[in-house]
């Protein structure tokens, strides 16, 4: 009997801190006895240095996903800041519209599992615009009806954006300078977390059986797999 093809993984946001960590995390499974799904990184522009197959998509054009090979699961690590985006509308276009476009395209193509990188404080009823958009994106993905949806809500990411060619986030840099020396005294739900921890937590949680929707706060992400 021929082997059953291993379902593909879509990864959106591979150029970011958690996205790059996910590339490494998913790649560490290679060589194990259990078949590992190949990864397809969805990109807005070419990135020849990525160690996986890539596909160019337009997040504002859902039709650009139609020709992609069907995934079994999808990891979504898209995100920006209002300062980088330039306006609230541009921020929402990434953190809500693009996220939902990827998730909906994956679901329509047959994906059964989805992992989303959200943020601490995400709440669709929040008075804070950033948190509200993040919460609305979570709710929109829940409504798509994945068999399993894992949502990560990390606190401040402790990673080096410059090494990825990303613009500096000054507020983030100052916060890290203040918090790193006393990280051990900060409650786990609030202390900075590395992108690698977030990526590992998402991969392990999505691979498990469990509730249709599971939310992992930063404290849980710190210990998944330990």
UniProtKB/TrEMBL annotation:
PANTHER family, sorted: OXIDOREDUCTASE HTATIP2
Organism: Roseateles asaccharophilus
Protein name: Uncharacterized protein YbjT (DUF2867 family)
Domain of life, source organism: Bacteria
UniProt-listed InterPro entries: NAD(P)-bd_dom_sf
